[in-house]
Specification:
This is Alanine and proline rich membrane protein. The chain is mostly helical and 147 residues long. The protein has helices at 2-19, 31-56, 66-93, 99-121, 125-145. The longest helix is centred in the middle third of the chain and has 28 residues, at 66-93. The mean pLDDT is 88.
Length: 147
Amino acid sequence: MVSLVIAVIAVGLAIGSWFRPTHSASPAFTSQQISDAKTNVCAAYTTVQQAVVINTHLVNPRPDDPIGQLAVAANARLALLGGGAYLRDRLAAEAATPADLAKAVKSMINTLEQLGVNYLAGASNIVQDPLRNELNSEINQINGLCT
């Protein structure tokens, strides 16, 4: 009889633990953690956005100098690829980043890196223009989220 009671209790516990979640889908963060993460991600975004704007709008002061042209192009590519990697690392380090901001930043990271790789591959404006427009939209969206 005792073994039957123990077996019934064990089955009940097993069924209960089956339906009880072992962990939450997303960790709970304090409002301070969320605020700090947003501040840090927005600061990283601002730095990357400035680097991208500065370096993708550089003009070679001597247009007939191929080394200067290559240097200007290299800085633009570095800003795009390095900026995407930097922003990805900062976002990964801030688990408490609000979901809407994290989603927008991830989208921007992908666009930055796609632009950079396309420039390295010699992609035409037909390929790059939609990505440039997408980047502008992402910048506007993140600007709104980081205010």
